[in-house]
Amino acid sequence: MGINILIVDDSSVMRAMILKTLRMSGLSLGDVYGASNGAEGLEILGRQWTDLVILDINMPVMNGEEMMIRMKENPETRDIPVIVVSTEGSKPRIDKLMKMGASFIRKPFTPEMIRDAVNQSLGQSLGQSLGTGESHG
Amino acid sequence: MDNPQKKTLSKIVSESLEKLAFMFFISDSFREPIPFQNAVTAEVSFTGVFSGRLAVVMTEAALKELTANMLGIDSEDVEQNHLNDALKETANIICGNWLPVVGGDETVFHIGAPEILSPSQAATALTGQIPSAMEKLSADEEPCDIYFFREK
Asked: pLDDT tens-digit profile of A2-20?
């Protein structure tokens, strides 16, 4: 069964580019959903089973940091792994996101960077689920 | 701007465009800047310990190739909204990678939403003051200019 992924980025070109990169990465993909801001992303998470979120930071309406905070507050979504893919270059803000459990990839990225981050995030997520007997979705 | 910083800006732009679109831009300092009426311009502003803005100017032909490569489609299939979106994202990425170089990676900057400028807006915004840095690059004779303004 493939991995269901939600891509949250206000740029339609970047969403398409991430999808292209995921396909090039050789990952087994299931359904891939797109959202242009954090609010849309949360709405999709509420109705679609999602294994992984790929999240931009600077977006209108609701930014990625706020979306991550809301995900962590909700027992239904708090264990879904998040990969932040952003132009963000400041170490304090990156550290803050990583403390919240996200992996981080700086734009621009290569297919290998995406593939490795997805594999690492899903591996960690599986390990946590096996350890606690919980699942997410 | 001193030469090492100019080289760093050129390197950041080249690496960004190579990773984004497999386009290989190199410094082309001796040509004239791209005339704004023949180009598409995206500008992004930022605030932090200092504020400023960065603009990317590209000919439509270069931008079409960039966009097609980013999306992995034929350039004939590229739509107008894709062109603008691709250039805005490119400006955003170059700015995000350039600011830690000039401000230090411990510094937090808030990068605003990129905007497309009309040719007359670009002329006013980019020639009204001397840029702190300006770099001219080309890939297969397709040019790309970068303007960086450090303000307060």
From this structure: 899 999 999 999 999 999 8
Model pLDDT for residues B3-28, shown as the tens digit of each residue? 677 788 999 999 999 988 889 999 99
What is the rounded CA–CA span in Å between residue A24 and residue A57? 24
Q: What's the angle, vertex CA B15, arms to CA B42 and CA A102, rounded to 5?
A: 85
Q: Which of A60, A91, A107 sits opposite B93 (nearest CB)?
A: A107
Tell me the pTM: 0.87
Q: B26 — phi, psi (to 5°)? A: -125, 160
Residue A46 DSSP label? T
Of A16, A89, A109, the CB nearest to B100: A89
Q: Do B96 and A16 touch (CB under 8 A)?
A: no
- B97-B102-B103 Cα angle (round to 5): 95
Residues 6+ apart with CB under 8 A from A88: A57, A58, A94, A97, A104, A106, B96
Output the CA–CA distances (angstroms, integers) from residue A20 to A4, A6, A17, A123, B137, in the order listed: 15, 14, 5, 22, 27
ipTM of the assembly?
0.82
- Are B56 and B90 in contact by the 8 Å Cβ rule? The answer is yes
From A1's Cα to the closest Cα of chain B, the distance in A is: 26
Rounded Cα distance between B84 and B119, Å, is: 14
CB contact under 8 A, A17 and B20: yes
